[in-house]
Amino acid sequence: MSHWERVLEATTHARAAELFAYAHTLTGDDAIAAAVVEDALAAVFGRRAYPRTVDEAWTLLQHAMRRAAVRAHPTPSAPTSEAADEDDDLPADLRTLPVRERALLAMRYVDGLAVPAIAHETGLATHAVEDALTRAVESLSDTHPELRLSVRDALEGGTLAQDVVVIGAA
Fold first, then answer.
1. How far is it, in rounded angstroms, from Cα 143 to Cα 155?
2. Nearest to 102 by CA among 10, 24, 19
3. Distance in angstroms (rounded) separating the CA atoms of residues 109 and 98
4. In the beta sheet, which residues pair with residue 159?
5. CA 142, 144, 145: angle at the middle one, nearest 5?
6. Does the predicted model carry a pTM greater than 0.90?
7. Nearest in space to 63 (alpha carbons), one of 6, 113, 1, 3
8. What's the rounded Cα separation, in Å, for the pair 80 and 138?
9. How many beta carbons lie within 10 A of that of residue 135, not counting itself?
């Protein structure tokens, strides 16, 4: 078994649940999340400069999942923004957001990234990120005013980078 195969095996063994959970947070759909994880694994381990450690792989996979999630297309069974849900609960309302808007919202509020960092991570133009975040925040603000979401915070808040420190790496 080659080194990259050992790193891939170790990564999937150690982080499989986290990979799927993060992809599901970004997409809100099991089938799309599975496709995002597959795309990310192929992107990270399908190139010549593969990660050397599980931690390095995790960082690269998060980046690849962010890129894949904003490009994912809903499956026929996945709800779209036109789907109306009678329930007044947040998970249901998050599922009604288009995949791209949900992924960008997760990057902003789960990962704490600022708009320029999200644009860099996903390869989208800054204005495309701003437009999608604005639509997502306005949609959720209408149904969940208790969240006190604001377009201004969505567009101006967050951090520009996430630093990863690996201790004990060889």
1. 20
2. 24
3. 16
4. 113
5. 80
6. no
7. 113
8. 16
9. 18
Comparing C-alpha atoms, which of 149, 153, 159, 150 is closest to residue 116? Answer: 159
- How many residues does the structure list for the chain? 170
Cβ atoms of 105 and 70 within 8 Å: the answer is no
The half-sphere exposure of 165 on its side-chain side, counting CA atoms within 13 A, is 1
Here the tokens at position 117 are 């960092």
The token pair at 45 is: 């381990």
- Give tens-digit pLDDT for 124-154: 999 999 999 999 999 888 887 887 888 888 8
- Spell out the residues 6+ positions from residue 23 whose beta carbon is closer than 8 angstroms to its own: 32, 33, 34, 36, 37, 40, 65, 69
Structure tokens at 125: 């133009």
User: Model confidence over 32-83: pLDDT tens digits?
Assistant: 999 999 999 999 998 888 899 999 999 999 999 999 999 887 755 544 444 4
Both structure tokens of 39: 């795309």
Q: Which domains does the chain have, with CATH numbers?
A: 3-156 (1.20.140)
Question: Which amino acid belongs to residue 110?
Answer: V
